C-alpha cells in the first residue's frame, strides 16, 4: 500500500497542505502530461497518479511497479470488464508499449506472452493481462523519468 503523503495542520484552522515533495512531483507529472498524447496509456497513468489524493506519487508508482495491478492498487482496473474496456480503448498504444519492451529486452512475443500469466484461459484474460502490463510498464518508465534515470 502506498505511504500517505505527509499532512500537517496550519494555525489550528484545520487547513491541510500537501508536502512540497508531492507537489513538485505532481507538477513534474503534469508537465509530462502536457507533452504527451492525451489519448495514451501514459496520459491515463499520469492522470490516475495525480488524482490519487493523499499519496506520494513516487511511492504510488513504486507500489504499482512492485506489486502490479493484480494487487488492486488501481481501482479502475480490478474487474475484468473494466480491464477489457481499457484494452479496447488503448489497444494500439498497448501493443506499442509491448513492442518497445520487446525491443529493449530482446524477448520474443511468444516468450513474452508465455511469461505474462500462465493461467490466461480466454481472450478477456489476455486483454486484462495486457492492460495491466501496459499500466505497470508505463508506471516503471514514469518512475525512471521522475528519478532522473531516463527520459
Sheet having the most strands: 2 strands, antiparallel
Low-confidence stretches: 1-16
> How large is the radius of gyration?
17 Å
Number of strands: 2
What is the topology, as strand order, of the major beta sheet? 1-2
Q: What distance lies between the first and last C-alpha atoms, to the nearest angstrom?
A: 27 Å
Give the overall shape, derived from the CA principal axes: globular
Total separate domains: 1
Element string (H = helix, E = strand): EEHHHHHH
Overall structural class, as computed from helix and strand content, comes to mainly alpha
Strand content: 5-15%
Helix % is: 55-70%
Number of helices: 6
Query: What is the residue-averaged pLDDT?
Result: 83
Task: Provide structural commentary.
There is one protein chain. The protein is mainly alpha-helical and 151 residues long. The chain has one domain. It contains 6 helices and 2 strands; from the N terminus they run E-E-H-H-H-H-H-H. It has helices at residues 20-34, 41-50, 57-67, 80-105, 109-116, 123-146; strands at 7-10, 15-18. The protein has a two-stranded antiparallel ribbon with strand order 1-2. The model is unreliable at 1-16 (pLDDT under 50).
Amino acid at each position: 500500500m502506498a505511504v500517505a503523503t505527509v499532512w500537517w495542520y496550519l494555525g489550528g484552522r484545520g487547513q491541510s497542505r500537501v508536502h512540497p515533495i508531492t507537489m513538485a512531483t505532481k507538477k513534474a507529472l503534469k508537465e509530462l502530461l502536457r507533452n504527451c498524447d492525451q489519448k495514451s496509456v501514459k496520459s491515463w497513468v499520469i492522470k490516475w497518479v495525480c488524482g490519487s489524493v493523499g499519496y506520494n506519487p513516487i511511492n504510488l508508482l513504486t507500489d504499482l511497479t512492485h506489486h502490479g495491478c493484480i494487487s488492486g492498487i488501481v481501482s479502475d482496473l480490478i474487474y475484468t470488464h473494466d480491464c477489457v474496456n481499457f484494452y479496447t480503448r488503448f489497444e494500439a498504444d498497448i501493443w506499442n508499449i509491448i513492442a518497445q519492451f520487446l525491443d529493449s529486452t530482446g524477448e520474443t512475443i511468444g516468450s513474452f506472452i508465455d511469461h505474462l500469466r500462465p493461467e490466461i484461459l480466454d481472450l478477456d484474460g489476455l486483454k486484462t493481462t495486457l492492460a495491466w502490463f501496459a499500466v505497470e510498464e508505463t508506471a516503471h518508465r514514469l518512475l525512471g523519468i521522475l528519478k532522473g534515470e531516463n527520459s
